[in-house]
Amino acid sequence: MCLLKNNSHLVLTLKNLKIVSRKSPLARIQAQLVAKAIRDEFPDIIFEHIYKSTLGDADLTTPLNQMPDIGVFTNDIRNDLLHGEADIAVHSWKDLPVDLEEGTEISATINRADTRDMIFLKEDSLGKQNLSILSSSPRREKNLSLFLPLALPFQSNISFKDVRGNIHTRLKKLIEGDDDGLVVAKAAIDRIIDQNVDEFIEDKKELLDITKNLKWMVLPISQNPCAAAQGALAIESREGDLKVEEIMKRINNEAIFEEVEKERSLLKSFGGGCHQKIGVACETIDGSSLLTVKGETEDREEISQRALEKDYEDYFKSIDEENYFPSNKEEQKFFERLPIEDSIDSLKQLKNVGIYISRSNAIDDSDLIDKSNTIWTSGIETWKSMAQKGYWVNGTSDSLGEDNSLAEDPFRKLDWLKVTHTDNQDDPKKSVATYKLEPLEVNQRIKDCDYFYWMSASSFKLALQKFPEIKNKNHACGLGSTHKIIKKEVPDVMTFLSYESWQESIKAHIRPNKQNG
Fold first, then answer.
1. Which pLDDT tens digit goes with each residue over 327-361?
2. Omega before 138 cis (within 30°)?
3. Which end of the chain has a smaller Cβ tally under 10 Å, C or N?
4. Helix 25-41 / helix 186-193 crossing angle, nearest 10 deg
5. How far separated are the first and last CA of the chain, in Å rounded?
6. Cα angle vertex 42, ends 41, 43, to 5°?
7. Model's pTM, two decimal places?
8. Contact between 115 and 109 (Cβ < 8 Å)
9. Left, alpha or beta for 452 (phi > 0: left; psi -120 to 50: alpha)?
10. For the chain, how are helix, strand and coil distributed in percent, rounded to 5?
């Protein structure tokens, strides 16, 4: 094969490529994924895979937060590069130290897997007063100790216990031991399940067999942001290896590379390393960057940040204390919600489907949804409300909208139904209407305002019908279907993570506007 560098006369030839990685099932799958990405660009290359154990694999008793922070899963593999025994190394990027030593470089990455964590819980642990959760991460322990008491459908005291080993080993320790739950990276589960290559079929079958009787949740980034670089693969190569460098340029996903480098840089600013109790996640949502940082610094300072990185300066240039609506959530109460008994009865009959709950008041009782169904919510508050009613919630769109954070069941393909109201004709998904909207009198203050935040498309439509003159004002809403619907009428509608973040932005801009005035 011939590779040209920068259209010059330098011709580089490389027919064989040696890839080194750890030897766990997941690591082997990840190495094969990189090989496939290279093969798609260079079909003539012949691959040789080298799998080996590392210090982190050999010592399965010492908790990770008590082991050396530098390269316990990567140094032994890196040495093969330095000694010329391999051409590239494939790592889970989150295992790499934030600063690499001289001699090698991260030269590429490919598509990133899901960055979220999952928790598995034994069926017979449901309702227990005390839960013991297996985890190898101070970050998970810190953030989940806050979220899980609100997310579980029963009250429990939660403690965490160290666990080591690959995914299969840790799941077996859960099944065979006295502990109740286990937290793992969802990327690991997805990559094993998604493989249909003969080499990994038994690993996939074993995983599905182990998890079939476990309850599971996909844990939201807003409450439990990932370890920096989680779900991403780092392809490491020797510095100055021009042949490999040309290949890496062709397969590198630059957007993911920049995203991961940003996460690692932020983690480094807090000290870096897997000993940290801080999660850092960068997501791209509708063309905007969403940054979430949550946990505790080494100085025991609590940190919790989540914001769309947008410039709202021009948008709020005319804001003042009187010209925005609503000033509180109650002020935007446009409808009474009336239950539909026939639909509620039909909801009770549904089994083995996915049910998407957009609003908690769409489900008033605790026994409307069969336990065979997978439940997904539009946001965290709806999740908490459903949990209080006794429902096991499997995941959430995290207030990012259904298109940005899809409802899913990693273990089975399901038909999805959305629980909504009778007038929701804008959503193409199949739905079950459990309530109808009865319009209330529209607040007259609307006609005197210039800035609006809409919590539903129905509210926007009703207000626009009563006061058509507001169409050309400054409108905002959350992400998702509400945004898509309003955008048809108001193309420049602004998006915020929530009503609360909209209010915070208003407060931040009112004072400067006063001073400038």
1. 998 898 999 988 888 887 888 899 999 999 988 88
2. no
3. C
4. 70
5. 67
6. 110
7. 0.90
8. no
9. beta
10. 35, 25, 40
